[in-house]
Write a structure and sequence with these properties.
- The protein has 305 residues and is α/β, with parallel strands linked by helices.
- Helix content is 42%, strand content 18%.
- The protein has a domain at 135-280: Nucleotidyltransferase, domain 5, CATH 3.30.420.10.
- The protein contains 12 helices and 8 strands.
- The chain is elongated and about 65 Å long.
- The relative contact order is 0.14.
- It binds zinc ion (ZN).
């Protein structure tokens, strides 16, 4: 089987021809994990024998038994790899992703929690991937309320709503990398924490509106420019951050009909993950499978805690 599918050109029919069996998926993971051929994780030897019943690759030198799914989000899963591959494909195929309910129906999963957990594990892999990247250059930053329609006093969370700090690189003609983070309150401390975590300080200029909480950025060493922006001016002062906020809101509300603020962060991560790779669409499936292979799993208990 050929490795690496062109995601942009693949449709449902081609995908179903490409991955027909459990074995197809496992071989795909094998090539992803060992692109140059098997290498023993224990001793580095390259000869192995395959134990088909337990799906383990045993090193001929040290007898270590390696598995393609150990330490990945597929580890000890009772759901077939084929269903996992379909879930990854369907989640990336549409701009707004797919709901757990939709996934359960499309994949014929017996239990809703199974579908829900799959979605969240895949989102966790996206989140882990984007954590490695930091924003730089001219960065637009703003906060926005997600969920509900009432507007509260700025800086404080209104009933049933979450405040999200939104940042995006302004690269002139287009937006660069984006990040969205749920915060408790739009205070100096919380907004500064987002900047410290996500921006490369020495290589960034942070642009915001005149909201007082952003003034602190300069005190902690960021280059900061603020411009008063009221009403219709807001979109002119911070064009990319406003486009991003309105698109993210319509995508999330359209498919999920309001997400609980507890899980909002994961949905935002998914949105950013896709947004940040919109120019690399053809590689999206491979990239996401790779992310899933390199992410340690989260359990249902951890997610619902
Ligand atoms: Zn070995």
């Amino acid at each position: 089987m050929e490795y690496g599918i062109n995601y942009k050109q693949i449709n449902l029919i081609k995908f179903s021809e490409y991955f027909k069996t459990e074995e197809d998926c496992r071989q795909y993971l094998f090539k992803m994990r060992w692109p140059e051929g098997f290498i023993c994780p224990q001793c580095g030897h390259n000869e192995y024998s395959y134990h088909s019943t337990r799906q383990l690759y045993q090193c001929k030198a040290c007898k270590y038994q390696a598995s393609v799914t150990a330490g990945t989000i597929f580890h000890k899963t009772r759901t077939s790899l084929l269903k996992w591959f379909w879930a990854i494909f369907l989640m990336t195929r549409q701009k707004a992703g797919v709901s757990a309910k939709g996934l359960q129906r499309m994949l014929g999963l017996n239990r809703y929690p199974t579908a829900w957990l799959m979605c969240h594990k895949i989102r966790k892999a996206m989140e882990d991937r984007d954590k490695k990247y930091k924003l730089s250059g001219l960065i637009e930053m703003d906060e926005s309320y997600f969920g509900g329609k009432k507007s509260g006093k700025r800086g404080r969370g209104a009933e049933g709503k979450a405040i999200v700090a939104v940042s995006v690189e302004n690269r002139g003609e287009h937006a660069g990398f984006a990040s969205m983070k749920v915060i408790d309150e739009a205070t100096s401390d919380e907004l500064a924490a987002v900047a410290e975590e996500k921006f490369i300080k020495e290589k960034s200029i942070v642009k915001t509106d005149g909201f007082s909480s952003y003034k602190y950025l300069k005190k902690i060493g960021f280059s900061h420019i603020s411009e008063k922006a009221g009403g219709s001016d807001a979109a002119k002062v911070l064009p990319w951050v406003h486009t991003l906020i309105s698109n993210a809101k319509s995508a999330i509300q359209g498919i999920f009909h309001g997400v609980s603020s507890k899980h909002l962060q994961r949905f935002l991560d998914e949105y950013c993950y896709r947004f940040n790779r919109r120019f690399k669409e053809s590689e999206l499936f491979d990239r996401l499978v790779t992310a899933c292979v390199r992410t340690f799993t989260v359990t249902y208990t951890e997610l619902t805690a």
